[in-house]
Amino acid sequence: MQSVDVLVRGRGAVGSSLALSLAAQGLSVGMTGSPEAPRANDVRTYALNAASVALLGELKIWSSLPADAVSPVYDMIVCGDAAQGQPAGRLSFSAWRQGARELAVIVDAAELDAQLATALRFSPHVHSVAGDTPAALTALCEGRESAAREALGIEFKPRPYGHRAVAARLLADRAHQGVARQWFQPGGEVLALLPFEKPVPGASYGLVWSCAEARAMQLMGLPAADFERELNAATGAAAGELKLGSERASWPLALARADAVSGPGWVLLGDAAHIVHPLAGQGLNLGLGDVAALSRVLAGREAWRPLGDERLLRRYARERLAPTLAMGELTDALQRLFAHPSGAAQNLRNRGLDALDQLPPLKRWLTQRALGL
What we know:
Blueprint: E1 4-9, H1 13-23, E2 29-32, E3 45-48, H2 50-58, E4 70-73, E5 75-79, E6 90-94, H3 95-98, E7 104-108, H4 109-121, E8 126-129, E9 135-140, H5 147-151, E10 159-172, E11 179-185, E12 189-196, E13 204-212, H6 213-221, H7 224-235, E14 242-244, E15 249-257, E16 262-263, E17 266-268, E18 274-275, H8 283-299, H9 310-339, H10 343-357, H11 360-371
Parallel strand pairs: 1-2, 1-9, 2-8, 5-11, 9-17
Antiparallel strand pairs: 3-7, 4-7, 5-6, 10-13, 10-14, 10-15, 11-12, 12-13, 15-18, 16-17
Protein name: 2-octaprenyl-3-methyl-6-methoxy-1,4-benzoquinol hydroxylase
GO molecular function: FAD binding
Pfam families: FAD_binding_3
């Protein structure tokens, strides 16, 4: 059986990006499984930071995306809840004020997956192989349910939030102007509107509405008109009147981190290594950060050191420890703060948003972290 330098398990955005990045170094890359068929009515969107966009640019993927699959975010408005008669806190971010071209870019997940798949088909160093193909290094990018990670005995115990995300594409009766909006609501609900170009250019959004499981299942089961009524009541017409432009999708939310992300001859990347709450939109950014870090480590290895050397792979683990741990703790802390039902906690979080809005240096630091700078 012919061997490869690196065996990549998982054909999602993280696994595909890793295969292309390592192939660009001249390494032979094997990918297991068959290419995934396009998902029908895929409503997913990714919020990508500057570092992720740069990586996809290096892989020649970014320039191949259709114009209507990409929407820049120039401003973001975050609102607290106004329950119990208290005024809602408000925090705003502006790319112009931060000296950035954009705060993030919203990308059609299906289009990104399609362009990655096309690039893989034309890469001479990437091949579809069997799962038992010998390799100097095996990269596990199979997602949160990774069977190969479990076979290695790596501890990965998701801590469920008891919440689910509800996603859809929306149409608005006014232009989004590149403004993303987010509401923290009672009970830990987080509603995000991400400016998008489909179905209607300039007046569409990607919706991610995180709420308790019972509430999420209720929203999923509502007739379209009733769902839209709930949605418009929650957003208070801040983005105009919103209507569904797609089917709805839902998935459970949890926090998890593998107790080890590297070992002799193997590494974990993306959701196989860590999952975080989507309130900051950083899930795929963390995964692509893993890709960039591992690619740098392998490209910079000593000529005599093999790809699967345990000490070499520890460099990757050390580089990714701080950013992935910090993002997991930050999103978890925010979710718990806004989920706390007491009036004192509500007052604290609303005052905190207002106070942060008056601190430009701290806002600039937060923006740089979100941009991956």
